[in-house]
Design brief:
This protein is α/β, with parallel strands linked by helices. Helices cover 42% and strands 19% of the residues. Bound molecules: magnesium ion and zinc ion.
Length: 221
């Protein structure tokens, strides 16, 4: 019985990965750079997306796929008000996005008119890491108030990403957070991980993140 269960799970994952590759080819065909943003709820996914849109919208054409577990369009409405295209994916209570949901989202976006697509995954530090969506990059947002032990508690997530944003650095004077402990945990799991400490609120550190995106966009042209 146990063997049968394992086989079924592997099939599900490989179907997801196949569709992720299809999404990746479609995005490549349109020269679009794309980011899958993962984080726990409240780490600042929507805030980072809105700041990024605000800074880049004059020169970069941006689309956002918003994953939510309920049919609330709060984040998608904010993205549209902020000046980008947005598609809302209601996962129907599911705790992560998968590549079929991204395929549906891409079908709703004007791909020939976009340079950058940002996917806001469901707030969750466990299973989103296991589902490739077909994006160019997988990014994780950690934030100071969540604490410095998260790499030790969620190794799968920290191992599976290409970029780490450490948000809310403006709260460092008020919250206990040991940078060395946090970063040592990160390095053990993912030695080459690029880290961007920043604050969406004060915009400290935002420049490096924006310059990095611009560099990635240039490579796609
Ligand atoms: Mg959000
Ligand atoms: Zn899940």
């Amino acid at each position: 019985m146990a063997t049968k269960k394992v086989t079924i799970l592997e099939n599900i994952l490989s179907a997801n990965d196949q569709l992720a590759e299809k999404n990746r080819s479609l995005l490549d065909h349109h020269g679009i750079f794309s980011i899958n943003i993962m984080a726990s709820p409240g780490a600042g996914k929507t805030s980072l997306i809105l700041k990024t849109i605000d800074i880049l919208k004059k020169t970069v054409r941006i689309g956002v796929i918003e994953g939510d577990t309920a049919a609330v369009t709060i984040d998608a409405d904010r993205v549209i008000a902020g000046g980008a295209y947005a598609v809302q994916i209601n996962t129907g209570g599911n705790c992560h996005l998968d590549s079929s949901m991204i395929e549906a989202g891409l079908n709703q976006l004007p791909l020939e008119q976009l340079d950058l697509i940002i996917v806001e995954n469901v707030g969750n530090l466990v299973c989103p890491a296991a589902f490739d969506l077909g994006t160019s990059i997988r990014a994780l947002i950690a934030s100071i108030p969540e604490g410095d032990d998260k790499p030790y508690k969620y190794p799968g997530m920290y191992r599976g990403v290409d970029v780490l944003i450490l948000n809310k650095i403006d709260l460092k004077p008020y919250v206990p957070f040991n940078d060395d402990y946090f970063l040592n945990g990160v390095r053990l799991l993912n030695p080459k991980l690029q880290v961007f400490p920043l604050s969406c609120k004060t915009e400290e550190g935002m420049d490096s993140w924006i310059e990095w995106i611009k560099g990635q966009l240039k490579k796609k042209v």
